[in-house]
Amino acid sequence: MPLFCEDVAVAGVRPILIVLSHLRWDFVMQRPHHVLNRAAADFDIWFMEEPVIEGRIAMVREMSRGAGITVVQPVVPAGTSAADALAHQGEIAARLVAKAGSGAGSAPVCLWYYAPMARAFGQHLSADLVIYDKMSEPAAFAFAPPDLAGHDAALLREADVVFTGGASLQIAASLHRSDAYCFPSSIDALHFGQARDAGLADPESQRMIAHPRLGYFGVIDERIDLALIAEVAALRPDWQFVMIGPIARIDPDSLPQVSNIHWLGARPYASLPHYMAHWDLAWMPFARNEATRHISPTKTPEFLAAGLPVISTPIADVISSYGRLGLVEIAIDAPDVVARAKKILENAADPVQHRRRLAAVDAQLAGDSWDATWAAMRSLIAAAAQTTPLPARQLAERSSAHA
């Protein structure tokens, strides 16, 4: 199969990666962005989102997002049934596959799933390779379709290559297959390491917030323990809690509104080190529920690379990868958060402890990068491509070429 092969390069035909995603490219920087921006060196990527509801007719729009990446956005009018929306997505995806096979050379096609529900139409597409990057437990999220879990399980069994976003997800995936490859959240160390520069300007939106500051960034959804945040803020009204990120799947009115909790909304990825450079510590107030049972938060290594002390609720992958090494403090409830944060703040002026902590962090994060993650994924994809049978589309093309 001509993935990453010399004959493809000579023919000037780049393989196509059709990504079926539940996340929107222009939402916030997450795992798919880090991986696919690097994959674009090897593939032409068509990143197909779930439908946008607007207008009066079903249509599709395409938007360039850098070299090799095109966002494909289905559009359906309000009132479109779930079945019709899936059918519209299936028609668009089928056209993308057909487009890859047109012209002077037939480009190899890979399907890359982030959205298990897309299997409803994706299983009917002719692709050279099927990849499932399981970055979460989607059936555990609020408003998940009832048949999502079935599509997730089927993808784990049927995909040619399965990646998982953490050790807990790999264990769960092992119920369906023994060769799921674990790629936990990695780190853009140079980007977040900028936060160690004391000279970075404090962003205007937090400049007037007093210290000490306990900060968090990420999507604010059912994975965040709002009650815990409110309780800790009440216990320490002299501490300031800076919360950065868009709100999703929860009522904005449910956010605790007190003077020392600051909901700053979404901020550009490029600006995050500027905010973090002026925090006193980072806090990951994750709820303990089904939505967080298997998460491996990308922000854990990002906070550490920024040079911040980190406190987290007891998340399995955080404990196993960082808590047991003493790199992240694990707090079980509000009084525990306060006690651990108080100790961190009291020791903040100790230069010896600061240097030791950063040395331990840097040793743990050394060699951990999204570049290394993609290189390993690429190798596994190429190996799978050599052993996966050709789909009917490719077999028909080869037969006609030799007729």
Task: Name its key features.
alpha/beta, Rossmann fold, 2 domains, nine-stranded mixed β-sheet, 15 strands, 37% helix
Q: What would you say this structure looks like, in words?
A:
This protein is an alpha/beta fold. The protein folds into two domains: 6-186 and 369-401, 3-Layer(aba) Sandwich (Rossmann fold), CATH 3.40.50.2000; 189-365, 3-Layer(aba) Sandwich (Rossmann fold), CATH 3.40.50.2000. 37% of the residues lie in helices and 17% in strands. It has helices at 6-11, 31-39, 82-100, 119-122, 148-158, 167-173, 189-193, 204-207, 226-235, 272-276, 299-305, 316-323, 334-346, 351-365, 370-387, 392-401, and strands at residues 16-20, 44-48, 52-53, 59-64, 69-76, 109-113, 129-134, 161-164, 181-182, 213-217, 240-244, 261-265, 281-284, 310-312, 329-330. Strands 1, 2, 3, 4, 5, 6, 7, 8 and 9 form a nine-stranded mixed β-sheet that branches. Strands 12-11-10-13-14-15 form a six-stranded parallel β-sheet, sandwiched between helices. Mean pLDDT is 92; it is low at 5-10 and 392-403.
